[in-house]
Amino acid sequence: MTRVTKGSGAKAGKPYLVCVKAKGGAGCTYRAVTLADVERAIVDDADFLVGTATSGDHDLDGQLEALEGTLDAIREQIGNVVEALSHGASAALSERLRALEAEADAKEAERVTLLERVEAAYKPFVEQRLGELETALHADPIDKQAANAAMRRLFERVTVDYPRGKLVFAWKNGAVSEIVFAFPDT
């Protein structure tokens, strides 16, 4: 979403959020959502939102362990191919080495993403970030900059579900929470 304000100066209207794709004519339906409605919903439902946070995903440790085992196996295969290449060059071995290195790079990127999810799911970090979000949203006036920063650390994305009138929060640890920001379309 991007922020849009019609007019300028004293004639400026209320700011809205609009899908970037819709604004650029790239396929989405152009629907403007009042920024004030979104902000109000987040502030009014801050306690609910924080209360729906999960403390972690127990499957992540298992996924990380399995991924690290796969990475170890790939690295061992790379070592074997390098050893074989030291005894003589081979086009097939060189191609195999490139494929294994590409696979290792992809798995390493997957590992980094998984580590970020593990960190996001680690309870003390989540609790600290939730505290920062609550403090920013309950400040008078609201500390929008701090709230935005805390939300970026907690959420992968926030989607405006216009037809249902909901904001869908995708937590970095994989969980999802929803709050109502407007009455749904009928």
Automatic annotation (TrEMBL):
Coiled coil spans: 64-117
Q: Which UniProt keywords apply?
A: Coiled coil
User: What domain of life does the UniProt record list for this protein's source?
Assistant: Bacteria
Q: What is this protein called?
A: Recombinase family protein
